[in-house]
Amino acid sequence: MTPFDLVEPASLKEAIALIDPNDPDVRPIAGGTALMLMMKAGVFRPRRLVSLRKLGDDFSRIAATPSGDLRIGAMTPLSALEHSPDVLRHASVVVRTMRRLANVRVRNVATVGGALAHADPHMDLPPVLIALGASVSVVGTSGERTMPVEDLLTGYYETALAKNELITEVRIPAQGATHAVYFKVTTGSADDWPALGVAVALVAEGSSVKSARIVVSASTTKATRLQAAEKALIGLKVDDAMLKKVADTAADEADVLADVRGSASYKRELLRVYVVRAVRAAMQANGVPH
């Protein structure tokens, strides 16, 4: 790696002031699990890194409100999500997802905000957060704003963040009767990068679906809601014929890309199979035998 300066501001205001939007060689760093790999490979050669490690406990705190909302500081390590009683109680799919994300060494260092800001389409957390209807708080020189996670991710390793904006918090709304599942399909070990990720969150009434979110990741340029597939699912009785229609709609809707983990046609077929499995699992979580 080439030499670089490391600065460690003690406040959010100071951190934002140190990030020059006109200098691409200055970059904030949270856990650094992805950024350091890019630096070692020579893909990125920063002049200065602005560490966010000393911003204070408020940015690494998990809190549940009386109504069941979850507020998660952007500097919270992924391992803290994995072991949080509040997250288990209010969004258990996040805990289950973390247990198969990379390895414990990565989860101890990687942060929630970093996982979102990096915008790698293979990350497991973004599709789950989108399925849960989560949003992020973002702060920059122009003030604070909030946006849904699905609007934060704009493309392949691209976000809606300005160059001098930082994610400060993730908010997961109370899930009520919603139950969510996430399926990760890998070509290697269970904790490997996925060839496909599918997250489904739904509310069922009897054998019918009242509301649904279906999200695909890893095989697309970003974690993406499949809204046509959602519409095909809502309001109808879930049976084999209906699930086949939903799966075909999802496969037609998703902009699937080929890579070293499989061809586009292979991943499209995976999507058909795993949308069905995910909807069935979410229905079972809602107490509907299927």
Number of helices: 12
What is the approximate shape? globular
Order of helices and strands: EHEHEEEHHHHHHEEHEEEEEEEHHH
At CATH level 2, the architecture of the largest domain is: 2-Layer Sandwich
**Percent of residues in beta strands?**
25-35%
Record the strand order, biggest sheet. Answer: 4-5-10-6-7
Q: How many strands in all?
A: 14
Task: Describe the structure in brief.
The chain has 290 residues and is α+β, with helices and mostly antiparallel strands. The protein has twelve helices and 14 strands.
Description:
It is globular, with a radius of gyration of 19 Å. It has a five-stranded antiparallel β-sheet with strand order 4-5-10-6-7. A four-stranded antiparallel β-sheet has the order 11-12-13-14, with helices on both faces. A hairpin with a 2-residue loop joins β12 and β13. It has three domains: 46 residues; 114 residues, Uridine Diphospho-n-acetylenolpyruvylglucosamine Reductase, domain 3 (2-Layer Sandwich), CATH 3.30.465; 107 residues, 2-Layer Sandwich (Enolase-like, domain 1), CATH 3.30.390.50. Helices cover 34% and strands 26% of the residues. It is built from twelve helices and 14 strands. The mean pLDDT is 95. With 290 residues, it is of the alpha+beta class.
